Amino acid sequence: MNNLIETISKNNKLCNLVQKDNFVGWVFSIDYENALIMTNDEWKSNVRGIPHNSFLIATSLDTEKFATTQEIDKEVILLRVTNSCKLPQDDDMIKTRIDNYQNQQQVEDLPNQQDYDILTKNKMQFSGLECRVLGTFYLKNENLYLGSDIENYSTALKMKVYMPDGESLQEIVNYVDPIRKEKFKEDFKELGITKDVDPFRIGTVRYTSTDRLHRSDLNDLIPFSIQPSDFLARRTAVLGMTRTGKSNMIKQTVSVVKQVSEECTLDIGQIIYDINGEYANANDQDKGSIAEIYKDDCIRYRSVKTEGFKPLLNNFYTQLEEGHSIICDCIREKYGSSGAADLNLFMNSISFDKPPEGNKGETVRWNQKVALYKTLLYAAKFSAPSNYKVYFEANKDIRRLVNPDVDPKDGLTLYESKIWFTNLRRISQEIKKEITDIARNKKSKEERKYNPTDADIIDHWITEECRIMLNMLCMRNDSDGYFNGYKAITEAQKYHSFERDSDVREEIYNSLCEGKIVIIDLSVGNALIRERISKDIAEYIFNQSMKIFTEGKKPKNIVIYIEEAHNLIGKNMELTNTWPRIAKEGAKYRIGLVYATQEVSSIHPNILANTENWFVSHLNSEKEIKELAKFYDFGDFSQSLLKSQDIGFTRVKTLSSPFVIPIQIDKFDPSNFVKGVKNE
Ligand SMILES: Nc1ncnc2c1ncn2[C@@H]1O[C@H](COP(=O)(O)OP(=O)(O)OP(=O)(O)O)[C@@H](O)[C@H]1O
Ligand SMILES: [Mg+2]
Fold it and tell me: Which ranges of 462-595 would DSSP assign to H, the alpha helix?
C-alpha cells in the first residue's frame, strides 16, 4: 500500500514540485497579489540562502497524503521574492540586539559572555520576506497547469514555503502550459513543420549578480530552454547596455533557428544587418563568426568589392530606378537644391517606371529614354564593356536629320550613341535658332538649312525627360549656357558595378527562400549607400512576402536581425515606413524580427507592445528601467537591472514562458551547433 502511494506521488507532477528538504518558512499573510513569509536563518542556511528575485513555492499540501487531501488544498502557489518585510516582533528584537551590544564589556566577543538565552536567540533568527504571487500550479487530467493568479486564498491555512531547486526549479522555469504546447504544434504545422522540435538550452537560472552560493556547483545550474517556435514569425527584443551580451544572444538565436531549419528540413532564411562586421568576420574574443560556422549556408555582402563577399553594388545599366535614386541622393548631398535647373528636373521629373505591356507607343519612348540615360552614365564614366550596346527605335525622319546611315534599332555602342544623341541635340538647337533668326529677319527663308516641318519632328521626338538628359549630356542648358551636366552624377560611380547582372535585392530574397543566412556587412563603405541599400533590401523582402501572401500562397519563413534598432524603428517614426511595418505586420507574412538596442525608451511604443520575446541585460538609467517596467513583470527586476552589469545576466520573457525568468545566457559556442549534433 505504501509503495502504491509512493508511486502515485512520484508520478504526480504537482507533488514533484514540493521538495520537503527545502522548507524555508511559512506564509503569514497572503492576498491576490502578494504573500508575506516568515523565514528563519537556519532554514535559509539549509538552502544556501534565499537570493533576491528567487522563486519560492507555497502550499498546504502534504505530498504524502495527496489522495486524502481536500480538493481546495491541491495546489502550489509560485512566488517571487521581491523584498524583505518586517515582522511585528522586529522592533523588539532590534531593541534586544542593541541592548546586548551596549551591555558588552569588550568589543571582542568572549565565548558565552553576555549572549542571548536560547529562546531569544531562536526568536531573533526569524525574519520576513515579501513575495509577488506569480501563479498557481494545479493538476487537470494529470497535466500540470499554471494559472497566472490565485483563485482563492485562506488566511487561516498553514502554508509551508519551499525553495525549489533541481528538477522542481527546472520544471518551473521551463514550464509551458499544455494548451499552448498544442497551439505551438498547430503553429508549426502552419509553418510547414510537422516534426516535434525540442526546446533549446540557452542559459541557466541566475538570481543575483553575486552567485557564490546559488550557482557554486555545476549541479546547481538549472538549464533554461527556449521554444524554437517562439522565434519564427515573432518579434524579439534584445535590450541592454553595450558589451552586456546582446550580439552573443543574437548568435545563439541565429544558431537555434538554423538548427530548427536543419532538423525539420524546412527552409528558414535569416538576414543579419551586421553593423560592426562581427557576424561576417571572426574576431579575437569570440570563437568563430556566424559566417565561418555556417560556411556552406552563409552568403556575405559588402558595399565595397572584397574577396569572399558578394557586392551590394548595383549595375546602374540594369537597375535603372535603383541607380537613378542613388544618383539623385548623391546630387542632393552635394548640391542640395542649389544645383542647375536641369539637375533639379533630373531628380524630380524622371521616372523609369516600365510602361504597361502592350502599349507599343510608350514602350518605344521608354526605350529611347533608357538608351539616353545609359549614354549619360557612359559619359559620366560608369564602367561598361566596350561592346555594350543600346537599342531604340528612331523613325525615318529623325534618322535623316541625325544620321541617315545609322539605325539605332540595330544597336549602337555607348560611344556611338553618345555621338548620335549629341548630334540630335545640336540639330535641335540649330533648328530652334534658325526659326528665331528667320522670325527676327536675321536669316532669309531661302537660306534655311532645315525644312519647316523638321521642328515638329524634333519636338515630337524630344520629350521633356529627353530634353533634360540631352542638356546634361552636352553640359548645356536650353539657352546653351554651360552647366556641369553629367559631371554632377559621377559621384555615384562608386556604387556601380557592371558585374552584377541581377537585382541584388532579388538575389538576396531568393537566397533567403532557400534557407540561407545572409549577412550584410555594413561595417565598411559609405553610410549613405548602407542606409539606402539596407532599407531597400528590407522593403523588397517585405513586399515580396506580402505579395506571395496576398496571392493566397505561403511565403517562406524569414528572420531579420537588426542592431541599433532605435535608428530604424524609433518612437517618432511613421508606422507606414518600411522598418516599422516589418516590425508591426511582418509576422503575418512569416517575417520574424529580432532587434537589439540599448535604448528601450526610443523604440516605437507600438512595436514594443507587439514584441513577444524579451531578453534584457543591464540598463543604466531609471528612464529605461521605467519604460521596461511597463511590460510584464520586469518591474520586479528594476533594481537588479540597474545595478548588476554582469555580461550575459539577462532577464528573459519569451512568448511561451508565463513570467520573467532571470538567466545567465551561455556564451555562444559554435561546437554546440555543429551540423547534426543537437544542443542539450
Ligand atoms: N553570456 C556570455 N557569457 C560570457 N561571455 C559573453 C556572454 N555574452 C557575451 N560575452 C562576451 O562579452 C563580449 C561582449 O558581448 P557582445 O558583443 O555580445 O555584447 P553587445 O551587447 O552586443 O555589445 P555592443 O553593444 O558593443 O554591441 C564579447 O566578447 C562576448 O564574447
Ligand atoms: Mg553587439
Answer: 464-474, 504-513, 527-550, 578-585
**Cell numbers given for 344:** 533639379
Cβ neighbours for 252, distance < 8 A, ≥ 6 positions apart: 202, 665, 666, 668
Q: Look at the block and give the residue holding cell 533590401.
A: 537
CA dihedral 305, 310, 314, 315 (to 10 degrees): 90
Residues with CB under 6 A from ligand 1: 240, 242-248, 285-286, 647-648, 665, 667
What sign for the dihedral angle of Cα 567, 570, 574, 576?
positive
* Rounded Cα gap, residues 295 and 281, in angstroms: 11
Residue 196: what are its φ and ψ, rounded to 5°?
-75, 130
What sign does the dihedral 302-305-308-311 (CA atoms) show?
positive
Residue whose CA lies nearest to ligand 1 atom number 16: 245
Tell me what the mean pLDDT of segment 69-88 comes to. 94
Could you tell me the distance, in angstroms and rounded to a whole number, from the CA of residue 41 to the centre of ligand 1?
Answer: 37
The tens digit of pLDDT for each residue in 293-311 reads 999 999 999 887 788 999 8
Assigned fold of 186-208+233-313+500-673: Rossmann fold (3.40.50)
For residue 293, which phi and psi values (nearest 5 degrees)?
A: -70, -40
Q: Which ligand is nearest to the CA of 615?
A: 1
CA angle 504-509-514, nearest 5°?
A: 125
Instruction: Name the band, by pLDDT with cuts 50, 70 and 90, for residue 3.
Output: low
Closest-lying ligand 1 atom to the alpha carbon of residue 648: 1
| 200 touches 226 (CB < 8 A) | yes
The Cα 66–Cα 74 span in angstroms is 8
Q: What angle do CA 659, 660, 665 make, to 5 degrees?
A: 135
Nearest protein Cα to ligand 1, atom 10: 245
How many angstroms is it from 255 CA to the middle of ligand 1?
16
CA distances from 220 to 205, 223, 657 (A): 9, 9, 21
Question: From the alpha carbon of 238, which atom of ligand 1 is closest?
Answer: 21
438-466 per-position pLDDT tens digit = 999 888 888 889 998 999 999 999 999 99
- Tell me the domain boundaries of the chain: 2-175, 186-208+233-313+500-673, 320-495
> In this structure, which residue's CA is closest to atom 24 in ligand 1?
242
Supply 609's cell numbers: 507592445
Nearest CA to ligand 1 atom 29: 285
Q: Identify the weakest region by mean pLDDT among 131-140, 226-235, 647-656.
A: 226-235
pLDDT at 680 over 50: no
Please report the atom of ligand 1 found closest to the CA of residue 617.
Answer: 21
Closest ligand 1 atom, CA of 249? 18
CA gap 672, 595 in Å, rounded = 24
CA nearest 18: which of 58, 68, 69, 65?
58
Q: Nearest ligand, CA of residue 204?
A: 1
C-alpha cell at 246: 546582446
Distance separating the N- and C-terminal Cα atoms of the chain: 38
Q: How far, in Å, from the CA of 272 to the mean position of ligand 2? A: 12
Cα separation, 511 vs 650, in Å, equals 33
Lowest-confidence region among 179-188, 232-241, 359-368: 179-188
User: How high is the mean pLDDT of the chain?
Assistant: 90
Whether the model pTM is above 0.70: yes
Name the β-bridge partners of 37: 27, 129
Residues 304-349 have pLDDT tens digits of 778 899 988 888 999 899 899 889 988 888 887 778 899 999 999 9
The number of residues in the chain equals: 680
pLDDT > 70? residue 5: no
